[in-house]
Design a protein that fits this description.
The chain is an alpha/beta fold. It is built from seven helices and 15 strands. The strands form four sheets. It has a five-stranded parallel sheet, sandwiched between helices. Strand 1, helix 1 and strand 2 form a beta-alpha-beta unit. GO terms for molecular function: DNA binding; phosphorelay response regulator activity.
Length: 251
């Protein structure tokens, strides 16, 4: 299901966009996970806890009366969530080149001054596109993590390891650049990609990013210095995988 975020500090425009989105979903019998409205950029940022093509952001870049700060904010969202769908609202046409310059990768730009019927049709068309994008591949070699709440994709080469979280039913994913928590189980993660390796009851690793196997301390050490435990019973199998991968690199 989709999570929708609106950044708009004009109360009338907030209400109009919110009611239009709700009516679009009612008309099409679509389900929406959440619809949140923010009047301040920093408040919206603090509520981004996931990433994926199920997250839709409607952003008014002029909210701070400084369009460049608005562009920088949109850029922050894009950096936090490379797969989110960003839609720019209420912006002058001469700003369009800057959207490309800041690499925001917006799906569309909406002019709120059009009549209500055309505005409704525009919003409906955008959500049709958003829903069609759910579950599609974003990266040539990415794994897709799906549950009832979210969908996101991670390039396989960036994955270090998965571990059980302190929060019940949650998994923590360690990548080269970040850590992500989401609802799932290691049993489900094992089925996502056969290249992943279950090295311990609490850990699943990407052997491609293993730098060293510490057999004395039962640790797997990754290229960035992070580590996780490995069961003694799994050391032999991982050592073979590790050696096979090194041979392929040399070839």
């Amino acid at each position: 299901m989709l999570s929708v975020f609106i950044l708009e500090n004009n109360f009338f425009k907030q209400s109009f966009l919110e009611s239009t989105i709700q009516e679009v979903f009612r008309k099409n019998s679509w389900k929406i996970r959440s619809l949140k409205i923010f009047g301040k950029p920093e408040k919206l940022l603090s509520h981004i806890s996931e990433r994926g093509s199920h997250q839709i952001f409607f952003l008014n870049l002029k909210i701070t009366n400084d369009v460049f700060k608005g562009l920088e904010f949109a850029q922050k969202i894009r950096n936090l969530d490379p797969y989110a769908i960003i839609i720019i609202i209420n912006i002058h046409q001469n700003i369009l080149p800057l959207i490309f310059q800041y690499k925001i990768s917006a799906l569309d730009v909406i002019n709120e001054d059009i009549n209500d019927h055309k505005f409704f049709e525009h919003i409906e068309s955008l959500f049709e596109t958003c829903i069609a994008r759910l579950g599609t591949s974003i990266h040539q070699d990415a794994i897709s993590i799906k549950n009832s709440l979210s969908v996101f994709q991670i390039p396989f080469k960036n994955i270090l390891f998965f571990e059980t979280s302190d929060i019940v039913h949650k998994i923590k994913l360690h990548t080269i650049t970040e850590k992500i928590e989401f609802y799932s189980s290691l049993k489900q993660i094992e089925k996502v990609d056969k290249r992943l390796f279950r090295c311990h009851k609490s850990f699943i690793i990407n052997p491609q990013n293993v730098k060293q196997i510490d057999k004395t301390n039962n640790l797997v050490i990754f290229d960035n210095g992070e580590n996780c435990f490995i069961s003694k019973l799994k050391i032999k199998d991982l050592t073979k995988k590790f050696d096979d991968l090194r041979k392929k690199v040399k070839e």
